[in-house]
Amino acid sequence: MCGFITIVGKNLSHINKNFFFHASKKNIHRGPHQQSYFFDSNILCSAQTLKITKRSQFSDQPYRSKNGRFIITLNGQIYNYKQLIEDLKKDFHFRFKNELEVIEKLFVKFGINFVNHLNGMFAISIWDIKKKTLYLFTDHFGIKPIYYTKYNNNWFFSSEIKDLKLFIPHYHFKEDKESVAKFLKYSITNNNENTFYKNIKKFSYAKIGIFKDNNFKKRCFWELKIQNNQKPDYVKLTQLFSKNFNLYSNTSIKKSFAISSGIDSNFILQQSINDKSYNIKKDLSVISEIKKYHYESEYRKNVNFFDKYPIKIDLYSNKKILEPSNLENLEYITEQPVHSSNIYVSLLLRKYLKNKNYNVLISGHGSDEIFGGYTRAFFDYMFELDNQKNKDYFFDFIDISRNYLGMNKNLILKQYNNFKKNLGFNFRYFQNIKSFFIKDYLKAYSFTNNMYYSSDQRKNFLKFRLKQHIFKHDLPYALTIEDKISMSNSIETRVPFLNKFLVENIFKIDSKYFLENGLNKNILRNISQRLSHFQNWYGKKYQLPGDDYLFLKKHIDKFVLEKVQDDPSLDEIINKKK
Questions:
Q1: What is the pTM of this model?
Q2: pLDDT tens per residue across span 95-135
Q3: Which domains does the chain have, with CATH numbers?
Q4: Residue 275 pLDDT > 80
Q5: Contacts of range 414-422, beta carbons closer than 8 Å, 24 or more positions apart
Q6: Which helix (H) or strand (E) holds 263?
């Protein structure tokens, strides 16, 4: 893992080289173990490296190829790099046998198409000295970020926005009012390449960027296809999951596991134990112990873990950590607004791990979006069945879903009809809060949230919506926040569910298996059972770890109200009388 800053353009002579190097070392949380730089008349490039395994000089960044032509930086991990070395041995001699050298050899052999051979999470930059061309790549799910902007005829690329602020005047960072409005009205962020700054953009998933002759362009190199014609082959899926999770968790590194009451994180922990990659002498499983804020019976009965593995942490025991002033630090770290107290609690958890000298955290991010993990998935599938005009199956599905949804048939139908009228993302959320806004503000930013869906999208509506949540709504936001709060503590978060080959196989399966028997994430539950995980496969997940109401009301209510009342810039947005 690392962070990098790269500047290319026509006015590099205006940037002092010593200032560039020293300024780029200011934020070294992404790479505390090594910092260095490369520059010539066409580029300034700085990198900081977090070394998880061997702290060897051969993994220092920026990395220079054997022939001296390519300058490479990698933020992330290439999980299949050992297999790629074996595949490339017949064509190349390897000196260091690390990920950077693999990228070099692949790029020499395949050019920009080398990225199709990678399995991992990555933001990669490659500077071709001979062609004076910069290539940039982001992984299939946009797990690792690249931010960019153009200023004074130079292009700036960085792992974090705060690094861009080291070299560009503050007036360049103007508020993107449409992004702010989308967040305030619908809690939408990261559904495109915009940020909360008008002039700062972000690479989305599976992107290739090319800078040459002071021109910059991007394109997508991969798209998840929706198919709907296969039965789940659980023998194949079980083998695929077992092989995949071995890439993310091994005995040679000290690692931690984030545990909740859900099947996702427990799946990861138990698979790690099953394949003997969990090292009980040095690995740590952590769960936020917040019994003061949840009924213990509701909270504890759904946490499926082994007594000897997790360490429970009472993150709320110290009142000082809940002081409002600490929220300003959260805003600095995330570089954008947040909409849940869970993020604050998650940051505290990562600070705890840093103090215990852990650099790797394994998380269940992405599972809900891939397998259909939220209540909304039931209504998405009902809409799909409704469009297929299969009334018998439609009502049968409602009937078998009653127990999980905790509603009778009439109430489910009532909620479905409301859902059908308002298919826009988070429409009900907006209905609940719109009275807090000034009416003129709502009129000024009245962009369409109710989308039109084609016949093909309606036919495969469940997976179409899951794909939206993977690439446009929930998951990009979660991954952006996760990258910031983990890397601020020099922790690499690994997300085993976000594997290209795994997700492609899941999206070939017929929609009816996703919520079969009226259970969410039915496919994952079946895989877990076949892998002999001793979970409660039919349990319901409860919200963890935080309580927004208690967090706001008991700890920062007065602070927030004072800020709102005293800030004149909010007069045109918020109905302060309300």
A1: 0.92
A2: 999 999 999 999 999 999 999 999 999 999 999 999 999 99
A3: 2-220 (3.60.20.10), 234-369+475-560 (3.40.50.620), 373-470 (no CATH)
A4: no
A5: 415/379, 416/379, 416/382, 416/383, 419/379, 419/382, 419/383, 420/383, 420/386, 422/450
A6: helix 263-274
